[in-house]
Amino acid sequence: MKTPVDIAVTGAAGQISYSLLFHLASGELLGLDQPIVLRLLEIPPAMKQLQGVVMELNDCAFPLINKIIITDDPKVAFDNVDYAFLVGAKPRGPGMLRSDLLLDNAQIFITQGRALNEVASRKVKVLVTGNPANTNALIAINNAPDLAPECFTAMTMLDHKRAISQVAEKCGVLSRDVKNVAIWGNHSCTQYPDLHHAKVKGMDVLSLVEHSWFVDEFIPTVQYRGTEIIKVRGQSSAASAAHAAIEHMRVWAFGTDPGDWVSMAVASDGSYGVEEGLVYSFPVTVVDGQIGIVKGLDLNEFGLARLRQNEVELKEERQAIKHLL
Ligand code: NAX
Questions:
Q1: Residue 90 CB–ligand 1 contact under 6 Å
Q2: What integer is the mean pLDDT of 26-46?
Q3: A single GO BP annotation from the record (predicted)?
Q4: Does ligand 1 come within 6 angstroms of the Cβ of 129?
């Protein structure tokens, strides 16, 4: 058996983690020959619920689990971890302003960024899922000066998968036939789901669908899918978010398929005119664990306007927490 790999999950008693942990424990991320240590972080009021989740994990007798550690101390949770799923965040309560949400979550990601900086593996792969994901990742980067910004990403993989699924349904093909969709910008309703480079069995998607479908149906469906799930299911996306989180990390660890890309929010290197340092979703490829923004894609005026709109929104989010950076 290989040496165990340490994986941290925050918000471990929450609903996304209730799916994520069982997928991780069954070897879906790193394979059936890779033992793992799960390091689960929660806040004290959720500790009892977390104990219940651990009882269930134990009841599965997963052969790949070497140890499960539960804690409310980020330094214990992140000790020497290679992978960190930052799922835990404070939800927006009734009457709460977006600016209050940003501030409350900023405190969480300041603390966790500092703890990662102190104790995580220097090659840690961090995925921020907790919202507002892009800005939370920016805060973590700013509080982890000894870790490369490349260690941090935020999740737009669920949006990416939603886009693939919408195209597959519209074109009457399988999801695996759809390639090169892209999510640009913020993981918010402002995001730009883009089909200008997308292909179905080698054909341009935009030559197969009406332009009005792309603009009036596809884009808002992907942008507001999370809201729609809440309306229909009564709770926010959980299993699909957990699946997307595993997929994001799996691609980061093992690479993108030849000829295809995925969407990840990463610190901008200035590509497409997006201010350097902003955590922004781009189409990316991954080779040998290195994430690279796909360069040189043509963007028309429609697309560029949406990219700028996302940049403005992310700068506003950054402005709201700037005094904490
Ligand atoms: P839940 O409210 O079910 O779970 C969140 C958990 O985080 C709770 O158990 C809470 O006690 C814990 N928590 C709060 N503060 C913490 C801290 N400082 N340290 C450790 N744990 C802490 O939410 P869930 O449905 O699991 O969603 C988690 C986050 O994912 C939310 O912010 C949600 O908005 C976000 N999402 C992001 C998505 C994305 O694509 N980026 C999609 C799904 C989801 O909406």
A1: yes
A2: 98
A3: malate metabolic process
A4: yes
